[in-house]
Amino acid sequence: MTTSEIADALKLTARLMELHNQNPFKTKSIANAAFRLGKTGEDLEGKSLAELEQIEGIGKGIAAKINELQTTGSLKELDEAVAATPVGVIELMNIKGIGPKKVGLLWRELGIESVGELLYACKENRLITLKGFGAKTQADVIKKIEFHDLNKNKAHYASLESIALELVDKLKTTYNTDLVALVGEMRRKCEVIEQVQILIGTDEIVKEELPPNFVFITCTPASFYKELFLNSGTSAHIQQAGKLADNLSFDSEEAVYESLGLPFIEPELREGLNEVALAKEGKLPNLITLQDLKGILHNHSTYSDGIHSLEEMAVYCKELGYEYLGMCDHSQSAFYANGLKPDRVLQQQQEIDELNKQLAPFKIFKGIESDILNDGSLDFEEEVLKSFDFVVASVHSNLKMDEAKANARLIKAIENPYTTILGHPTGRLLLSREGYPIDHKKIIDACAANNVVIELNAHPYRLDIDWRWIPYCLEKGVMISINPDAHQKEGYHDMYFGTCVARKGMLSAKQCFNALNLSEIEAHFKAKK
Quick one: DSSP state of residue 244? Predict the structure, then answer.
């Protein structure tokens, strides 16, 4: 091993010892040795144990560790510490400004085991409850995580869209052309992006500094729309759509599809699934738009772990032009999120009654995000459950389940007569937590049998239910509710990202629960009760 590799191994050993609250003197000694070796780069190759002990700042104990690393390529103490620590927790220590002690607190107190879970906890305003954290620290952590994420090979669509669109606008100005567009994964609005591709129709040489994972594709102005088509869909979509004749020039992308004998297929659909076959049969649906949504369900306020008050959340929702708001603060078992006990449920519902008088005809519905407990039951007695207009049932704890356990737990909750919406069905966090395994067909079938709506959680780190299962939901008559899970006013704007992936799943307004107007959704809630 090189001196640098040995220094890195000792540094990680010290950090894991600090994480696990081991002997602070020993921890500091190892950390100091790692720092010294990293700074000096002293050549350790071929040195005997006795020679290692003579190096300033090393000593017998650390010399033995260096010798073990040199002779075996590993360190037993480090291997044991790594084995006792989730991989994601180790990654958390790579985020600048979050040391082992704070990582340990996040892990033990909030159960955070990945960078994505930490970011989501920040967005839900949970860090401020911990000793040593505050609102400023939480905001700083978000910035550092976003920087960390942008330098990885994959990123959430939401973190790249504004950067990419700004670059498109800049290029249009720089090269004096409108023939600039996002293509590839970005044009299809995939939830996770590996590469941002930008097509430019120009005869000039393009010279621009690009962020990581951004690439240009250039073409002549005459071939722009043909190349837009060829670079927007997957290879399967292009193959299924048919072969374009050589040397053709088009003045629009619609004209490209027309030449193939097809109606225009929206970019979000161009995944090479069944969209071309449906287009040939004239069966493509009118995809939902953000403007189709009439209300915002599943939101949190300062009653639980939100940043803004109930009134602030309601007023802003009304200002955005929506007809109704569904408040769904956390239930009593969600102690980490200041979940509502029955007395605070009553207090909130009384405030909702008063606000409804002030804000009419806009309406706030009395909801709750009820934890699905380990046995599948909901988190309140019947007397409390029946006081709500609607209930979003979600799993937040004991996420490490096998498929049989997860199915049984969810289906019992779905069969509860008070469950209106199944929230974020797999509990996934994109790029950080896979989510518990479920048999999607069984869960969707259960929702169909019990008249339960399935949530498409619009938070760009969830986007759960996966859009690939939306067609099966629609086939079974299960409506989809695009919910932002907003923990602050600005979270309402995540409805846009939920709509993007809903379109990928071929959702139309008539099959979207919160595209119902106020009177229609009131009737649904009353019928369900």
Answer: P
Q: Average pLDDT over the chain, rounded to whole?
A: 93
Reply yes or no: is the peptide bond before residue 361 cis, omega within 30 of 0. Answer: yes
> H/E element holding 454?
strand 453-457
Report whether 256 contacts 229 (CB < 8 A).
Answer: yes
How far is residue 383 from each of residues 379, 418, 452, 487, measured CA to CA in Å? Answer: 12, 11, 20, 27
Tokens for 514, please give them: 């919160």
Q: Which helix (H) or strand (E) holds 156?
A: strand 155-156
pLDDT digits (tens, 9 = 90+) for 314-371: 999 999 999 999 999 999 999 888 899 999 999 999 999 999 999 999 999 999 999 9
CA distance 409 to 427: 13
Q: How far apart are CA 136 and CA 119, in angstroms?
A: 14
* Helix residue ranges per DSSP H, 57-181: 59-72, 76-83, 87-92, 100-110, 115-123, 135-150, 157-174
440-465: b (≥16 Cβ within 10 Å) or e? beebbbbbbebbbbbbbbbbbbbbbb
Q: Would you state the structure tokens that stand for residue 502, as one six-digit string?
A: 């809903």
DSSP β-bridge partners for residue 486: 299
Q: Is the pLDDT of residue 73 over 70?
A: yes
pLDDT of residue 151: 62
